[in-house]
Write a structure and sequence with these properties.
Helix content is about 45%, strand content about 20%. The protein is an alpha/beta fold. The strands form 4 sheets. It has a 6-stranded parallel beta sheet with strand order 3-2-1-4-5-6. A 3-stranded antiparallel beta sheet has the order 7-10-11. A 3-stranded antiparallel beta sheet has the order 12-13-14. It is globular, with a radius of gyration of 19 Å. About 50% of the residues are buried.
């Protein structure tokens, strides 16, 4: 049986971790591309030299030539500049849009039948631009954001309640930026509402709401928190792991319900934009969108986040992309 061919565009911090995780899980053969001469070759060699120790047997190849991605089944795009301290995701728009143009043109040329996962920021704009240039079906171009944002939200909840993060279910909707919408009402620990557990812990509803508000704000600013601590660069372990969850759902046709940046047409009263929503992810990429009821406050927050996405896309188009 032919192994999957998975190409990673961008061999920086995220790209290197992605290549290692794909090898460890033996999801397929890896092509690691970057414009920096010899760097992807060095990372590929370093990872594959651990194959005997870690017990994996896949091919990992570093390259500076887009021709080597030809025929890939799955393409994961991390190319672009990372955020620096004090820089918002939106500040990256012009520079990373130019990079994404080149990436999309080459993926269209060499991997016309692939499914693509985009990680590059500002995420919502980069997914939109990639799909526009490639012309790929919308269901086969997906942005990674919600898996990571929801994992961050779940992590903070688990710390606060002193429970395993494995038992925490949390969901974040909307754009991958400061207007993202952690859905408090549906957050639960094995079905038990998180707010109920917080109120029991503090024996004070107001205090519970204050603690949850702090966790929501920390989730929104989590990427910036990592940037500030690292001083140089941005998060890479968690975005890579989040993308692998999506890749596995596609490769193994798992039909997982994951929060992703997907193109929606009418769901949540939004049409024609890539927005973070829960979706069924399988062999065909986004196979359906899971729509659910939102209350008035949640609807207002999502509308605000969608407005930010629309504004970002409009800015990108105004700049000629």
């Amino acid at each position: 049986m032919k192994r999957n061919k998975i190409s990673i565009i961008g061999a920086g911090q995220i790209g290197g971790v992605l290549a290692q995780l794909i090898a460890l899980r033996q999801l397929g053969d890896v092509v690691l591309y970057d414009i920096i001469e010899d760097m992807p070759q060095g990372k590929a060699l370093d990872i594959v030299e651990a194959s005997r120790v870690d017990g994996f047997d896949v091919s990992i190849r570093g390259t500076n030539d887009y021709k080597d991605i030809q025929g890939s089944d799955l393409v994961i795009v991390t190319a672009g500049l990372p955020r620096k301290p004090g820089m918002s995701r939106d500040d990256l728009l012009v520079t990373n849009a130019k990079i994404m143009q080149t990436v999309a043109e080459n993926v269209k040329k060499y991997c016309p039948g692939s499914i693509s996962i985009i990680i590059s920021n500002p995420l919502d704009a980069m997914v939109t631009l990639f799909q526009k240039i490639t012309g790929f079906p919308h269901n086969k171009v997906i942005g990674q954001a919600g898996v990571l944002d929801s994992s961050r939200f779940a992590t903070f909840i688990s710390w606060e309640l002193g429970v395993s993060v494995k038992d925490v279910n949390a969901l974040v909707l909307g754009g991958h930026g400061d207007t993202m919408v952690p859905i408090v009402r549906y957050a639960n620990v094995n079905g038990i509402p998180v707010m109920e557990l917080l109120e029991k812990k503090y024996k004070d509803k107001a205090k519970a709401e204050e603690v949850m508000k702090a966790m929501v704000e920390r989730t929104k600013m989590a990427g910036g928190e990592v940037v500030k601590l690292l001083k140089t660069g941005s998060a890479f372990y968690s975005p890579a792991s989040s993308s692998i969850a999506m890749a596995e759902a596609i490769i193994f046709d798992e039909k997982r319900v994951l929060p992703v940046c997907a193109f929606i047409n009418g769901e949540f009263n939004v049409s024609g934009y890539y927005v973070g929503v829960p979706a069924v992810i399988g062999a065909n990429g986004v196979e359906s969108i899971i729509e659910f009821s939102l209350n008035a406050e949640e609807k207002a927050l999502l509308e605000n986040s969608v407005s930010a996405v629309k504004s970002l896309v409009a800015d990108m188009e105004r700049l000629g992309f």
